[in-house]
Amino acid sequence: MIETLIIADDLTGAADCAVSCATAGADTVVLLDANADPGGATAASVDVNSRAMMVQEAGAAVTGAVQHLYSKSTRILYHKIDSTLRGNWPSELAHIRQAATDVLGYAPFVIVAPAFPGAGRATIDGHVFVNGTPLENTGLWKQADATQSADLRTIVADVGLKVGVVTLEQVALGTEALKARLAKWADAGCDVVVCDAQIEDNLLTVAAASLMLPGKPLWVGSAGLMRALVRAGEGEVVPTSAPIRAAAGKPIFIVVGSASSVSHTQFEALAEEQGVVPVTILPSTLRESSAPERVQSCAQTLDAALASGVDVAVTIRGEEVNFQAGPRLAAALAVLIAARLPRVGGLIVTGGETARAILDRAGISGLRMQGEIEPGAPVGISIGDFAIPVITKAGAFGDHMTLTRCRAILRGGRSNHSNSTMSG
User: Fold this and answer.
1) Is it the case that residue 328 has pLDDT exceeding 70?
2) Which of 46-60, 118-132, 211-225, 391-405 is least confident?
3) Strand-pair category, 377-383 with 218-221
4) For FRET with 363, which of 112, 204, 301, 383 sits at 20 to 30 Å CA-CA?
5) For residues 27 and 370, is the Cβ–Cβ distance under 8 A?
6) In the chain, pLDDT over 70 holds for what percent of residues?
7) What per-residue confidence (pLDDT) applies to 253?
8) How far apart are CA 393 and CA 316, in angstroms?
9) Above 70 in pLDDT, residue 322?
10) What contacts 26, CB < 8 A, 6 or more positions away?
11) Which helix (H) or strand (E) holds 270?
């Protein structure tokens, strides 16, 4: 029976939320297909892969996931959204709420709290801030080509839902006071309440108060709120203590598919490590118009590196990349990587789009989550024709040594990490 159901729009987000359940002891899977068998897991996180979809297509995707996996026995229904508000999440929220209503017989009260203090994301007076800067004034907002306001009240109201806001001052009054305020909003006919949060304790208060509400709320947030819900309901979330290693004698594939400058800095640090062969692929090589011999040359380079038994780090860069070209490049890169996965002992991949494309192409239907290497770097074992450890990481998460530490863990070493800075 699925007690916790997470609906996410990309793979790294699905895994980052799911790992909170795994580290609290729940049998947890990440599914790439909502119709896949969760295999007896009590927590399931579904990547509906909807971030780049058209709005209507995204709505249908999340509706199907809820219809297939949600039941009256499910305790937590969680809509994982991007902490910088990318994607189709407002429309998805309306569809998820309606699908849950069809199951429950009543419309769930919605708690929206996208803050992720560990990654520098806060919500103040219903507005998202990134490292103290209003989201609208950041490069992230411009990169996503967003033109609308980042005021959560306006965004949610635009999909026809009645919205209220709980301020930081009100959250700071504590769990009981917040529970009473949320109940008043619900009694007044409010559909959604946006909750401010600036520090981890704010999210923990929101989680604890909302868990005390009657009925079954629908929670909406990033990995930060999910972690708080697990802590409030189950206990402390801690990094896994179980050793997770790559298959002995086989190389590790590290794939950087994100355009984030943070990921490229991590790649450069990794490329300096002994036993790592760095391979840079030009975007033009992966485009459909590229000469086949260039792709063949890349394939031969990868094969030679893998045959030597060393770890291989692959990235796409060297030319300006159009944001809209991302899906096509990820798919082309997946063709090169996926065919070689059965020969490796582990996979580390940054960028949800790239991770999804590679696993799909390799016939991997999901991940059984084991824990996290560090915050923002969850690890699971692939479900499918072969089982290898897979670490996924959002592009802008971590410090410059994150990929190096992930590789060291899979190689059987220990991480010296403490208090990693997550900037994405």
Assistant:
1) yes
2) 391-405
3) unpaired
4) 301
5) no
6) 90
7) 96
8) 16
9) no
10) 3, 4, 41, 42, 43, 234
11) helix 261-271
Q: Rounded to whole angstroms, what are the CA distances from 349 to 151, 235, 380, 405?
A: 32, 29, 12, 13
Distances (CA, A) of 216 to 28, 127, 273: 21, 26, 49
Give the whole-angstrom CA distance, residue 146 versus residue 85.
Answer: 9
Mode of pairing for the β-strands spanning 346-350 and 252-256: parallel
Average pLDDT over residues 388-403: 88
For 238, other C-beta atoms within 10 Å of its C-beta total 10
Cα 22 from Cα 111, distance rounded (Å): 23
Q: What angle do CA 235, 238, 239 make, to 5 degrees?
A: 155
Tokens of 133: 């800067």
Confidence label for 257 from pLDDT (cuts 50, 70 and 90): confident
The tokens for 282 are 């030009």
Q: What's the CATH number of domain 252-410, 1.10.3720.10, 3.40.980.20, 3.40.50.300, 3.90.190.20?
A: 3.40.980.20
pLDDT in tens, 196-223: 999 999 999 999 999 999 999 999 999 9
Decide if pLDDT at 422 tops 70.
Answer: no
Query: What values do phi and psi take at 269, rounded to 5?
Result: -65, -40
- pTM above 0.70? yes
pLDDT value for 324? 56
What is the CA 332 to chain-centroid distance, rounded? Answer: 22
Name residue, tokens 């008043």: 184
> In the CATH hierarchy, which top-level class contains the domain 4-234?
alpha beta
pLDDT score of 59 more than 60: yes
Got the DSSP string for 39-54? TT-SEEEEE---TTS-
The DSSP-derived string for 289-356 is TS-HHHHHHHHHHHHHHHHTT-EEEEEE-SS---GGGHHHHHHHHHHHHHTTGGG-SEEEEESHHHHH
Query: Under 8 Å CB-to-CB from 31, ≥6 apart: which residues?
Result: 38, 44, 45, 46, 47, 365, 366
Give the separation between CA 240 and CA 367, rounded to whole angstroms: 16
331 pLDDT higher than 90: no
Among 3, 9, 18, residue whose Cα is nearest residue 390: 18
Q: What share of residues in the chain are helix, strand, coil (percent, to 5)?
A: 40, 20, 40
pLDDT at 141 exceeding the cut of 80: no
Domain ranges within the chain, ordered by starting residue: 4-234, 252-410
Q: What is the dihedral of CA 33, 47, 161, 155, to 10 degrees?
A: -140
